[in-house]
Amino acid sequence: MNSLSGPEDAYRSLVEKGPEGWIYGLVAFAVLEEQRIEWMRHIESRSGCLPNSEQIREWYEQQPASTLIRARGTAESMLGDYAEDLAKSMDENHRRAILDDVIVAEIRSNNRFWPQFGANVAAGLVGTVLFSVLLVLIVLVALRDPSPVAMIKQVQEVQRGK
Predict the structure, then answer these.
(1) Exposed/middle/buried for 7, CB within 10 Å: 0-12, 13-18, 19+?
(2) Residue 19 has what DSSP assignment?
(3) Which of 73, 75, 155, 160 has the smallest set of CB atoms within 10 Å of its CB?
(4) Packing angle between helix 65-110 and helix 22-47, nearest 10 degrees?
(5) Burial of residue 48, with CB atoms counted within 10 A of its CB: 0-12 exposed, 13-18 middle, 19 or more buried
(6) How many CB atoms are located within 10 Å of the residue 73 CB?
(7) 3-state DSSP call for residue 51?
(8) Average pLDDT of the residues of the chain
(9) CA distance 18 to 12
(10) d(CA 39, CA 62)
């Protein structure tokens, strides 16, 4: 890996030539630049002034190849965490939407209470009437005693009575 001489080289190595793709490269570049800004603030706090362009170039040149690898790893980790958070958020939003749809449907079905109540009462009355008719038929059949022996006796009594 070539040594870096400035942010242009870092951008080229991380974004343009990066094997992971440009989004990983951009985040890795941001990680590297954040390290540079922290270094610049440190220099400013010690010396009272920001480093000049020559000092910044020297900082880039002093960075080992592992700096780029570490920046890529940090970017990959950050983007992975972001993707997980985004997936959880989308799942939660999807669950809320489904729950809201169920609640709205339940409220709408409650608005149809009286028509359903009337239909249920009518069905209950029809069932009661049918059950009553069935009971009356059973009682008539049971009291008439329609056994063949009883029918023959009835026919004989009617013939004797003539």
Answers:
(1) middle
(2) T
(3) 160
(4) 120
(5) exposed
(6) 13
(7) coil
(8) 83
(9) 8
(10) 12
pLDDT confidence bin for 154, thresholds 50/70/90: confident
Q: State the virtual CA torsion across 90, 95, 99, 100 in degrees, nearest 10.
A: 0
The predicted-structure confidence for 76-104, as pLDDT tens digits, reads as follows 889 888 888 888 877 777 777 777 777 77
Nearest alpha carbon to residue 41 among 24, 20, 56 = 56
Using N-to-C axis directions, what is the helix angle for 22-47 and 53-62, rounded to 10°?
120
- Angle, CA of 145, 151 and 155, to the nearest 5°: 140
DSSP 12: I
Residue-wise pLDDT for 106-130, tens only, equals 766 666 777 778 888 999 999 999 9
d(CA 105, CA 83): 33
Query: Given 3-state DSSP classes, what are the helix, strand and coil percentages for the chain, each rounded to the nearest 5?
Result: 85, 0, 15
Q: If DSSP codes are grouped into helix, strand and coil, which group holds residue 64? A: coil
Residue at token pair 């220099």:
43
Residue listed under structure tokens 């080289």: 9
